[in-house]
Amino acid sequence: MHLGEKAGLVIAEARFEEQARQVLWKHDAAPVVNPLEALQLLAGRALALEQVIGEKANELRSWRYEGGVGTEQLRSEIGALERAMDRCGRLLLDIAKLNVEEKLAGIRARTADMLEMALDAALESAGVGLDVKAKARDAFRRNLRIVA
Asked: Would you list the DSSP string of 21-87?
């Protein structure tokens, strides 16, 4: 390799690092407030990536290619697909082991209960009668189901 090639690699690497800094700045990581929902989101993104890589692998004419010294090698797309499938499998297994859906349902139910208690307290403060409270609670529950 002569100096011209090396300088080109150094410039390309510097450009890549600058692009990475810009992207990370745009996506400033906030703290995870709900790790269960974040895990579900991550699994969805991992499955989407696995699907995209699978589509690229399907476009290949061959899963192998011949290396420079006559050796046969596996295409990198196939290796990436295998890793994506493995990671998706582990993520889905983790979600199943953690009973994520059940835990999220429990969190939603507790949140609804707290909101209903807040509504009761507000109606009580306003001096609303029992019949109006019951109607307000019913309407609240109907609308909460629509939102959830």
From this structure: HHHHHHTPPPPPS-HHHHHHHHHHHHHHHHHHHHHHHHH-S-SEEE-TTS-EEE-HHHHHHHHHHHH
